[in-house]
Amino acid sequence: MILAILLLLAAPAIDFGFGPIPRERIYPSVTNRFGPFHWIHGQIYEKETPVDIAFMGSSLIWGNINTPYVRKELSSRSGTDAEVITLGWKWAGYDVLLAVASDLLSERKVKTLVIYDEGVDSPEVPHPHSQRIVRWHDDPALFSSLTAGQKTTLYAGSLLGLPRQTLTRFRRDLPDTGSIYHDGVGNTLDLSLTSGAWIDDAAEIQPREGFGIHPLFPEDRSINPISYDAGSADRFSFLEDGDESYQAAFAKRLFELCEARGTRLVMIHLPTAGERLSPEIPVRAPEGWFAKDGPVLLGIPPGELFAGLDAASVDDLYKDGRHMRSAFQSAFTRLITPSLLEAHGQ
Question: Do 190 and 197 form a contact (C-beta atoms < 8 A)?
């Protein structure tokens, strides 16, 4: 019995000894209930063109940024057909974010990667489906930087994911194409629909809600986003702890990866309804992350963004207080895009 338990615990290391399963075999085995991973696989492994801007993260950045609008604006400015994509999935976690970003940056040249302050509720806990995507041996530098407890957490996740991944040694997984997301080439989650859908063409949004226009955010309303630096630090507030957490280790490793790959990293703050009265931008991360070699930080003070709106009006902009409805998604994207493109062009 003891021997069986020891063999079970050693299984991830034993499996690794046979040679790691290629990362490109990972994504087809993940059900689309957790995100459009067959589409993400295609963007990473089936395309070779450089990416101008890649948005990446959980459903908040997936649903709150209108990627086709950013692509249209960047194409107009550059005079080229810009490549702007979003790779998004359910639930927040820097561990999954690092794994997907590492794969994308290994396969395609990415000029700018845009993430958001994920605000993980339990920073010592892995992402709910990390065992499907994150493996203990994929990043030796990360693994060596973890505490003993954090290494155990990561290794345990690999143990949970081992049965499914072991099967890929003997047969390939067919992509899960049957899901609530229809298989287009777009990359914006539209929350004006109850089920959610892929939107690739801005014209598809226009008949429903008026692309880029919201009655509370007319086109002539201008709000300047703020970029964090020494002169603007008092316009932001930050978490006072969490810099040594499990999730923080993955976030800081992502910063190192982007610097090594020559990819500009931008973190944006996505406002929630509960922040309506905040005069500062409440960043869900420690201030130390934004030192000299950290990401560019952009945001709009919620108190300015929602000025003149009561609580009910702000609530109506969201599906659940965090995920923007498509009309507000378009309005927020229009407001933040000029600063994003400025950061991209630096």
Answer: yes
The count of domains in the chain is 1
- Asked if residue 12 belongs to a domain, the reply is no
**Range(s) of the domain holding residue 255:** 36-125+178-345
**C-alpha radius of gyration, the chain, whole number:** 20
Residue 35's nearest CA partner among 91, 108, 103 is 91
pLDDT at 210 over 80: no
pLDDT tens for each residue of 56-111: 999 999 989 999 999 999 999 999 999 999 999 999 999 999 999 999 999 999 99
- For 141-192, what is each residue's pLDDT tens digit? 898 899 999 988 888 877 776 666 666 666 666 655 554 443 343 455 554 4
305-334 tens-digit pLDDT? 999 999 999 999 998 999 998 888 989 999
In a domain, 3, yes or no: no
- Residues β-bridged to residue 217: 214
| Residue 115, both tokens | 């993430």
* Among 61, 112, 54, 59, residue whose Cα is nearest residue 85: 54
* Residue 134, in any domain of the structure: no
Q: Residue with structure tokens 């702890």? A: 241
CA–CA separation, 169 vs 303, rounded Å? 53
Which CATH number do you get for residue 286? Answer: 3.40.50.1110
